[in-house]
Amino acid sequence: MKYQIMIDIMMLLLSKRKLSAQEIASRYDISQRSVYRYIDELNLCGVPVDVQRGRYGGISIADTFRLPSWYFTREEYTATINALNAMSSQVSDKSVISALDKLQSQQKLDKQNPNVCGNIIVDGGTWGDSKKFSDKMRVCETAVNERKSLLIDYISREGEHSKRVIDPYFLIFKQNVWYIYSFCHTKQTFRTFKVGRIKQASFTGETFEKKEITRDEINLNFYYNSVTMVDVTLEIEKATLPDAEDWLGMDNIEPRGNKFIARITAPDDGGLVNQILSYGGTVKVLEPLDLREKVRAAAEKILQA
Description:
Blueprint: H1 2-16, E1 18-19, H2 21-28, H3 32-44, E2 49-52, E3 58-61, H4 74-90, H5 94-111, E4 116-117, E5 120-121, H6 132-146, E6 148-155, E7 161-174, E8 177-184, E9 189-194, E10 198-207, E11 229-237, H7 241-248, E12 253-256, E13 259-267, H8 270-277, E14 283-287, H9 289-304
Antiparallel strand pairs: 1-3, 2-3, 4-5, 6-7, 6-10, 7-8, 8-9, 11-13, 11-14, 12-13
Helix pairs in contact: 1-3, 1-5, 2-3, 4-5, 8-9
């Protein structure tokens, strides 16, 4: 009985997206304390159920969460929905109608695929991410297209963890990374968020009116605003050339004897040093000398570890 209620709560949240503890408790004739206990157990099972207080409060499952692909195949979805449609037309059973609503809701989500456009497929996720990134992109694109506010769980580069409500205006693809340009209710200004750093995203149920914004008004150098830029000259060995071309771009690399030279302008942060070190000595810094020293010091630290 306990696990049946847990599954029912999960399916209910997938369908309704946000409910109060009192609504769930009344539906299953249990205490609110039991509701929160079931929520804790669902979280332990990997279902991202969130409890929020305040204006956008309630119990919800992140809109980036979907049932595993093996839960139902596409054919099984269609066959089940057809059977339930036929049954509901003959029998007025609330449980049948409820099941039909849930399945149709999930099927609608599965049909949305913002990463396919004509003959172009875009996948901004990492290898083996099990479509989690695609699910986040689906939610972000829906929010932009339908002007829906999002509650996001965001982790900055510095490790700062925050929850904030945003009004998404545009999706930006820059340097092979997806960003979402939004009005942030917390900061009361426009901010650019990296989609890959959004841990969870849920629709708040609110919509917003878009202000007229031109491309020229959007700062597309947002990543570099707080980072010092540096002109870098690198020497690259031939064996590493394909990987270096993927990183730096072929247009920035030219041959010199048996090796290759790359001239770029890059952010002078720890990420640049780590990227150079990842090539295991086959990419060397020629200029500037202080960056060369940072790479050398980081390599020595690795040797001493």
